[in-house]
Amino acid sequence: MIQTLISSKTRVKLLLKFFLNSDTKSYLRNLEAEFGESTNAIRLELNKFEKAGMLLSEMEGNKKYFKANVKHPLFKDINNIVFKYIGLDWIVDYVVQKLGNLEKVYLTGSFANGLDGKSIDLIFVGTINEDFLEELCQKVKKKLRKEISYKVIDNEELIILLKPDTRSKYLLLWESEK
After folding, report:
1. Which domains does the chain have, with CATH numbers?
2. Which residue has the higher pLDDT, 166 or 163?
3. Dihedrals φ, ψ of 168, to 5°?
4. Res 58: pLDDT
5. For burial by CB atoms within 10 Å, which of 9, 65, 107, 152 has the most?
């Protein structure tokens, strides 16, 4: 769907990279390796986003790092579009309403790192009915045509999981208001 509106594959990849997880930052050569595209195509798109004020850049040594400008007036809208494109908005809204004692939902894996992927990887924190969760995930899988993998953990496991030395990224999607 988003490819119909945005014809540049590189631009779509950059939107996913920077607007799905606003903490993500990267430099040109790193993006070249991740995307498997020429630096020229990536550089052109980065420059357009930076000129529009949607990306910020900073130099670290001889590398120019880019990250999303969360203060840009369109940031929230683009973030919402990216979430809708992946289907995360639907997953969270539907699952959270039905599961019971859910405290938090995290996104991990390729999407948490700002990359498109075949599987949506989620971590649910709380005490929930896992049989019902599996049933919901099968429905979501049919609707989104993406694999859904998940793990259910408690708060003690979450503390271990979120240690600073962990290389994986965990993006908080939802948190209970309790």
Report:
1. 2-77 (1.10.10.10), 87-175 (3.30.460.10)
2. 163
3. -70, 150
4. 96
5. 107
